[in-house]
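can u do me a favor
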């Protein structure tokens, strides 16, 4: 089964469908992600910026350098919890520090998701009004169950009491497995909390999250008759009416987006993009 796309010709029909995704808040809860262009894949920001044909060890080194640069340049902007989180995981090269960078728009291998389909709809509608957007979604529990069954296949170490997996054990290994998992940010920073956010993270750089999620969901044991994942196309000509409606629901830029260390994150994205451009020029010359 592939990601089945649904389309709606009016705002009311679209909102009704989104409401169905969040009608049950327990086992049937959906994870949602909005993207402004329906042609964009579920691809992490660092993968969009790194040269795809570069050596994998080089790409891992670039990823580690981003964490160090972010810490040096953003310390004065961050709150106490955020500083402690980044500094505490810096020496360990732990993936647990990446949610802070991701939320401030630095390039990482994480993808933002939300438990609110309306927040996802906002991000699908806010930019590129000349292009259709997309709300991607998958059911949370069958995904988590499917991921959990795979850890033993990947020979991942588990905590003997909690059965939790340390994702950093293989995430920075050049030969690590191609897993995908949900990553929560704890403690919940205000910015992540208001967006009801969490992340998916892949075990390796350069992986398409849609393919990984589909693989997990296709193998999930579920007796449900309804689809367990899919995407909703947000038509370009509906984007402004959608934003007008969402504003009446108190979903707008001021309620979801806050300035600060975002400037550092954007700067790091520009640097990586420039490095990719220069590398491409050098390859053409050689």
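np, heres the sequence
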């Amino acid at each position: 089964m592939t990601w089945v796309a649904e389309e709606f010709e009016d705002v009311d029909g679209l909102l009704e469908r989104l409401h169905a995704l969040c009608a049950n808040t327990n086992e049937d809860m959906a994870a949602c992600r909005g993207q402004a262009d329906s042609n964009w894949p579920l691809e992490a920001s660092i993968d969009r910026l790194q040269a795809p044909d570069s050596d994998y060890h080089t790409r891992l080194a670039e990823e580690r350098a981003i964490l160090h640069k972010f810490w040096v340049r953003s310390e004065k902007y961050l709150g106490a919890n955020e500083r402690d989180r980044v500094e505490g995981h810096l020496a360990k090269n732990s993936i647990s520090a990446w949610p802070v960078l991701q939320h401030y728009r630095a390039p990482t291998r994480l993808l933002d998701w939300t438990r609110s389909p309306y927040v996802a709809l906002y991000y699908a509608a806010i930019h590129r009004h000349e292009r259709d957007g997309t709300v991607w979604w998958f059911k949370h529990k069958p995904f988590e169950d499917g991921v959990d069954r795979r850890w033993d296949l990947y020979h991942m170490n588990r905590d003997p009491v909690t059965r939790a997996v340390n994702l950093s054990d293989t995430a920075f290994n050049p030969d690590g497995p191609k897993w995908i998992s949900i990553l929560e940010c704890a403690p919940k920073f205000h910015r992540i909390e208001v967006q009801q956010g969490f992340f998916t993270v892949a075990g390796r750089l350069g992986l398409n999250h849609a393919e990984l999620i589909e693989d997990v969901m296709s193998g999930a044991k579920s007796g449900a008759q309804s689809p367990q994942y899919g995407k909703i196309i947000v038509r370009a000509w509906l984007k402004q009416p959608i934003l007008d409606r969402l504003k009446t629901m108190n979903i707008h830029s001021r309620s979801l987006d806050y300035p600060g260390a975002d400037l550092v994150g954007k700067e790091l994205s520009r640097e990586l993009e420039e490095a990719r451009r220069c590398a491409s020029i050098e390859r053409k010359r050689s």
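The two ends are 44 Å apart (CA to CA). hope that helps!!
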